[in-house]
Write a structure and sequence with these properties.
By secondary structure, the chain is α+β, with helices and mostly antiparallel strands. The protein has a single domain (3-98), classed as Alpha-Beta Plaits (2-Layer Sandwich). Helices cover 35% and strands 36% of the residues. The chain has helices spanning 16-23, 28-33, 63-72, 74-84; strands at residues 3-11, 39-46, 53-60, 88-98. Strands 2-3-1-4 form a 4-stranded antiparallel beta sheet. Strand 2 and strand 3 form a beta hairpin.
């Protein structure tokens, strides 16, 4: 069973290319998350009806592992979050989910 954190982003038109690079499966966020052995990968998906709307699906072994990562890497997480703030009009955590056996 894995844990999934889903974020929604509304990206500024002139920032789409940079956003996709930073938030994609091999982007800056994924590289940061790879510092944890509990990180299982990221998927970036785009809304076909609203091309500036994206979702990220970050997979972790557990919610506790994600929280531990955020605590242990708070400074780097916050710095990257601030660096990326100018790319989006807004971002929302849609929720965190656990797989069902």
């Amino acid at each position: 069973m894995s844990h999934l954190a889903i974020w929604e982003f509304h990206v500024k038109q002139d920032s789409i290319s940079a956003f996709e690079k930073i938030y994609g499966p091999a982007g800056d966020w994924a590289q940061l998350f790879c510092l944890s052995p509990d990180y299982l990968g990221t998927e970036l998906i785009r809304d076909l009806n609203h091309p500036a709307r994206y979702l990220t699906l970050d997979r972790w072994t557990s919610g506790e592992a994600l929280e531990r990562f955020k605590h242990d890497h708070h400074a780097d997480y916050s710095a990257l979050d601030r660096q990326c703030a100018s790319l989006t009009e807004n971002e929302t955590l849609l929720g965190e989910f656990d797989g069902v056996d």
